[in-house]
Amino acid sequence: GGILADDMGLGKTIQVIAFLSGMFDAELVQHVLLIMPTTLVSSWLAEFARWTPGLRVKEFHGTSKAERTRNLERVQRKKGIVITSY
Question: Taking the model in full, what pTM does it have?
């Protein structure tokens, strides 16, 4: 686990995406949980889609209970990332 905190605009999102992409490519990790403020969830989903389109990234926030359950099951069965808020 870890916390990455710094001033805005320094590239933290891209750094984390690149790091996680490398971890998945090297098969060093299968499941990741990212927890962030609600206001950042959609931005992170868009950045993952932009930089790592082949990586399974699912949202665990704001959707119905059935959709959240489905997303968790998909990530559990296969490799992937779950993004949620606190």
Answer: 0.80
